[in-house]
Design brief:
FAS1 domain, 187 residues, 7-stranded mixed β-sheet, globular, 7 strands, alpha+beta
Length: 187
C-alpha cells in the first residue's frame, strides 16, 4: 500500500488533490488492490468517480451500502447485476433499512424470492446519470414496474425517485451507475 493511500486512510478528510491521485492509482492497480484501497470508504468519498469494476463490487466497498449489498447477495442477484450492462441502481443506504425494523417489508427482505422482487424494483435496465434522470418523468425497472422521477431544485442532487431522495449520485462502474437513496422503494 502506498504512503498516500495509508495517509488517506489515517485521515478522514479527502481533498480534491487526493481524489485525483486516488483515481490515477485505481487506474494502475489490479482489482485486488482496488478492493483493498476502497475497503472502508464512505459514499461521500467515492462520489464523482468512475471505477473499473462492476456496480456490485462498488457496493461491497461502501460502508453505507453494506445492507443492500448483503440483501442482493442473499437474494441471488449479485451475478445477475454483475453481468448486466448499462444498469442504474437506486441503492438504499443502511439508514433506510433501519427505518424498516419490525415492518412487513423488513421480513419480506429476509425471504429470497420477496427480496428479489423488491430489489429488482431498485434497478433500471439502462444507465441513467443525474443529467439523464432530470429529463425523465418515469423509468421502468427490471421488475417491470414504473418509478416516478421528480426534479426538486432545493435538494442536493435535485432528484426524487418515488418518495426517496437521491442523497449521492453518479457513482459509475463498468456496467452502470449507482444513486444512493434514503428510502427502500416498495413495489
Amino acid at each position: 500500500m502506498t504512503t498516500a493511500v495509508k495517509k488517506r486512510r489515517d485521515s478522514q478528510a479527502i481533498t480534491g488533490a487526493s481524489f485525483k491521485n486516488l483515481r490515477e492509482l485505481l487506474k494502475c492497480t489490479s482489482l485486488r488492490s482496488k478492493k483493498q484501497i476502497l475497503h472502508g470508504w464512505s459514499a461521500k468519498q467515492v462520489i464523482k468517480m468512475k471505477f473499473n469494476v462492476d456496480v456490485v463490487t462498488i457496493l461491497s466497498h461502501i460502508d453505507e451500502l453494506s445492507r443492500v449489498h448483503s440483501t442482493i447477495v442473499m437474494a441471488g442477484l449479485a451475478d445477475t447485476l454483475k453481468n448486466a450492462q448499462g444498469i442504474t441502481l437506486f441503492a438504499p443506504e443502511n439508514e433506510a433499512f433501519d427505518k424498516l425494523q419490525g415492518s412487513t417489508i423488513m421480513s419480506a427482505l429476509e425471504d429470497a424470492d420477496k427480496a428479489k422482487n423488491i430489489l429488482t424494483y431498485h434497478v433500471v435496465p439502462e444507465k441513467l446519470v443525474t443529467s439523464n434522470l432530470r429529463k425523465e418523468k418515469s423509468v421502468t425497472t427490471m421488475q417491470g414496474a414504473t418509478l416516478k422521477i421528480e426534479e426538486h431544485h432545493w435538494l442536493r442532487h435535485g432528484i426524487m425517485v418515488n418518495d426517496a431522495v437521491v442523497k449521492e449520485a453518479d457513482i459509475e462502474g463498468t456496467n452502470g451507475v449507482i444513486h444512493i437513496i434514503d428510502t427502500v422503494l416498495v413495489p
